[in-house]
Amino acid sequence: NVIWRKDMPLGILYGPVIGYDDVLYMGERALSPANVNYFYAVDKNGNDLWAFQTSTNLPNNSGPIIGYDSTIYFFSATRRMYALYFDGSLKWEQNLWANFRPFYPVAKNGDIYVALTDTIVVVSAGGITKDTLLIPDVIPALVFSTGGDTMFFKTGGFYQQPGNISASDLQGNVYWSHHFAMQNWGIPLVDNSNKLYVFGSDSINPNACFLYCFNPDGTVNWRYQVSYFLNHAAPTIDKNGNILLNARKIINSEERNCIISLDYYGNENWVMPFEGDWNDHYINHGLVCDAEGKVYGGATYQGNFYCIDSSGEILWTLDLGEYEYDSCPAIGSDGTLYIGLHISSLFQNHQQNLIAIRDEANAIEPPGTEILNYRLEQNYPNPFNSATHIRYAIPQSGRVTLKVYDLRGKAVATIVDCYQNRGEYEVLFQAGNLASGIYFYQLRIFVPVGQTGDFVSTKKLLLLK
């Protein structure tokens, strides 16, 4: 059910992405009629929170991503990178001349890795260039291993040209590399065991197309053959370890667009072919799964947005009309889906193109399915003088951070940053030399790679001295 729509007149290419308290962040797709363009924050009900203005009519259409400390990063089409505090004020900006549509992951220590034509530039969370790694012909599609100490990246030509997938340390020293006669620009997928999933052809025959699963040492674990993959298609993984992908496959002697589910060992669970014209189901982006195993994706060329259940049946569709969809949906804490649409980089009158959709049976973590659920409690006492207690619960083991931020979004204290087992916890926060005032404390539980989004919860505390 569509619960609200909002006009974003210059369109949305990539985004929205979702931050704490389900705040949505997005840039614009089209050229502005004025000499400025904007980047927006919108709450989960569709209300404007703030708009950041850039001094160019070129769109702010690359990214965005959210850092561990809620810093928002995005690129303008001018190839300029911006970092904003969560209140929309400027943290820093820097010219980097990144590739068009860059993908720039954040490392475990907060550094941002940006792929340029022949280099990967390492930028600190404070906007300082720390390193420049020489990686000839690097493609803006790189990810980190589960532990954060290995980098996986692609090199080679543009789409449908030869290239390599490689693994290296964070200084660019290559551990292994595998050659494809043809590859795409889709983002590789890394699972909890550091197995890597990526589209590519045979090393000799560009017409033999596969989804590859690589072991951590670079050997091929398995590969699944398809007839064709799109230039930005990428696989995803559900909570049961099933691999979901969108590709073309021969069905009854006819090549069809399909959504495909494989088990962890590369065996078919099901194949769902789309009916109708090729462009109607041209899903040229990565898929997203929720906690119930439902799969979401939308057509790039004026088709539909789809919800597919864990057995491969279409549960519902949303007609996108004249609009195109090039991103992945953001999923809120209550299971609401948020999608952004566009027409072209010249169209300046997009309407009703930021959409919130709710399937009441859908949720990130269905109520009652776990005896122990994610929980962050209000600190006590509150207000407090010098020390206060904070309780929280985590239903699965993983890395946990609990940090305190001031009103500008600057981290002023780290209470917890470690691996913790499933359970309930209570910690003591001592304010030390902090001044009286309002602060926010944020719990982040890093879910296993491939599952849908880290758990993040933020609450307010009041320090009175």
Give a quick precis of the structure.
Helices cover 0% and strands 46% of the residues.
How is this structure best described in words?
- This protein has no helices and 38 strands.
- The chain has two domains: 2-357, YVTN repeat-like/Quinoprotein amine dehydrogenase (Methylamine Dehydrogenase, Chain H, 7 Propeller), CATH 2.130.10.10; 375-463, Sandwich (Immunoglobulin-like).
- Strands 1-31-30-29 form a four-stranded antiparallel beta sheet, with no helix packed on it. Strands 2-3-4-5 form a four-stranded antiparallel beta sheet, with no helix packed on it.
- A hairpin with a 4-residue loop joins strand 7 and strand 8.
- The chain has 465 residues and is mainly beta.
Give the fraction of residues assigned to helices. under 10%
* CATH fold name of the largest domain: Methylamine Dehydrogenase, Chain H
Largest sheet: 4 strands, antiparallel
Question: How many domains make up the 3D coordinates?
Answer: 2
Q: Distance between the terminal alpha carbons, to the nearest Å?
A: 49 Å
Mean pLDDT: 87
Q: Look at the structure and name the CATH superfamily of the largest domain.
A: YVTN repeat-like/Quinoprotein amine dehydrogenase
Strand proportion, as a percent range, falls in over 45%
Layout of secondary structure:
Layout: E1 2-6, E2 17-18, E3 24-27, E4 37-42, E5 48-54, E6 62-66, E7 72-75, E8 80-84, E9 90-95, E10 112-115, E11 119-123, E12 129-134, E13 138-144, E14 151-156, E15 163-168, E16 174-180, E17 189-190, E18 196-201, E19 209-214, E20 220-226, E21 236-237, E22 243-251, E23 254-262, E24 268-273, E25 288-289, E26 295-298, E27 304-308, E28 314-319, E29 330-331, E30 337-340, E31 354-357, E32 375-376, E33 387-394, E34 398-405, E35 411-420, E36 423-430, E37 437-445, E38 455-463
Antiparallel strand pairs: 1-31, 2-3, 3-4, 4-5, 6-7, 7-8, 8-9, 10-11, 11-12, 13-14, 14-15, 15-16, 17-18, 18-19, 19-20, 21-22, 22-23, 23-24, 25-26, 26-27, 27-28, 29-30, 30-31, 32-33, 33-36, 34-35, 34-37, 37-38
